[in-house]
Amino acid sequence: MNTTYNKQSYYLAGLITLSLRLVVGWTYFSAFWRRIFLKPKLDPEFAGYIGHKFNHFLPNSLGIKPIIEYLLLNPDSLWVAMVIFTIIEGVVGLFFMLGLFTRAMSIWITGLALGILLAAGSLGTTCLDEWQIGILGIAAGFTIFLSGSGKFSVDYWLMKKNKSFTESKWFGWLGSGVLPMKTKSLNKLVITGSMLILFITLFTNQHFHGGLWGPLHNMSIKPKVEISNTKLVDNSLSFQLYRVEGVDVYGSFLIDVTLTNKAGEKIVQLDAKALSKFPKKQISNVYISKIKPGKHSMILPLGAKGTVTVIDDILATMPKGEYTLKLTDVSGKNWSVAVVK
């Protein structure tokens, strides 16, 4: 076969990319290490359960939202998925660092990075954190697929031991050494793969952050709460809240919920103290990240969705007409919606 370069050329390429392989491998293996050995992040009862992080991805994920929502609506399946995902990250990351079946692991690295990019590309308070992790992981996976691993790898050791399978075509695709491709085909693979990754980079940068044109935006800085399904019946007012933007490491803190009439008169008002003592049984949550009363406010984690029901006898005496429901966050932001009785 008219291959592009000899073994020594590929050994050199793999040697040059050693630091990239070690660092990228650790970023994935470390996720396994943290969840298993440092903190019980796979325990659904633990405050830092990885499932809550998964819930944060939901509002602004790209293309895979139905999968995320299905898992969130089925907590048992979510736990199984998180365990499997963690094991895969651990195995792939470790094998990648060791240089064992390097090209097969690079394909997994690329897939995992793409998943991170699509799920969490919008997150990042001081920088485009998750977007950068995702897109650089894709580029690194593709690069290591092309180079394979060099002298400091298990693949190299197996080849030097003259293991028969290392001479097979499949090992060239899944391990290291010479890629079984002709020069022209390799050139096409490099330019096509690179342009595709550049397209994904520019597309997702624009989609998540407006990085190419228009105003830059960061959905991880200021909280945003959507209000829907408002109902005013008898002595109860119910409304669904869905927090879709803001910092993922802590919630939005509601300090005021007010219902006013057209004249601007307050009919019902719940201040910070009342919201901190709001009955949990009057909050119906949809996902595992829950809207709940906190110490000084009502807490809305990123991705949390739930129906809040306010019960007050004065609601039953109100005349029919249009009212305004206004929510105020501790940051000063507020959100309003019309309510019709």
Q: Tally the beta strands.
A: 10
Class by helix and strand content? alpha+beta
Biggest sheet character? 6 strands, antiparallel
Cα(first) to Cα(last) distance is 78 Å
Unreliable segments (pLDDT under 50, ≥5 consecutive)? none
Using only C-alpha atoms, the radius of gyration works out to: 26 Å
Strand content: 15-25%
Number of separate structural domains: 2
Tell me the helix content: 40-55%
SSE arrangement, N to C: HHHHHHHHHHEEEEHEEEEHEE
How confident is the prediction overall: mean pLDDT?
94
Shape: elongated
Could you write a compact summary of the structure shown?
The protein is α+β, with helices and mostly antiparallel strands. 47% of the residues lie in helices and 19% in strands. α2 packs antiparallel against α5, α4 crosses α5 and α7 runs antiparallel to α10.
